Amino acid sequence: MTDSQKWMVLAVTGISFGLLYLLTPVLMPFIVAAFLAYLGDPVVDKLEARGVGRTLGVVFVFALMVLVFRRRVILFYSVDGRSNSAFLYSASALSSEY
Known about the structure:
Helix 2 crosses helix 3 (54-77). The radius of gyration is 22 Å and the shape is flat. The chain starts with a helix and ends with a helix. By secondary structure, the chain is an all-alpha fold. The chain has one domain (3-97). The protein is built from 4 helices and no strands.
């Protein structure tokens, strides 16, 4: 590999990493969605093997993931019962606005 080819590879690599860095806010929702689909697909496959339709299985797994995530957030942010109830009140107020 010549010196000019090495510089070209270095430049293309640098530009690629720079574009990836700049596009991170746009790409992150797709990366999270792909990760959740990767986690949920085996469960949906097992439900489908038991006779549950794929659409109903996806809805069930998605609802389960939302409930688990919501529970983790509540447990993470609650220190005692009073802050837990305050968090639930503010979360319900926020969800009613949207």
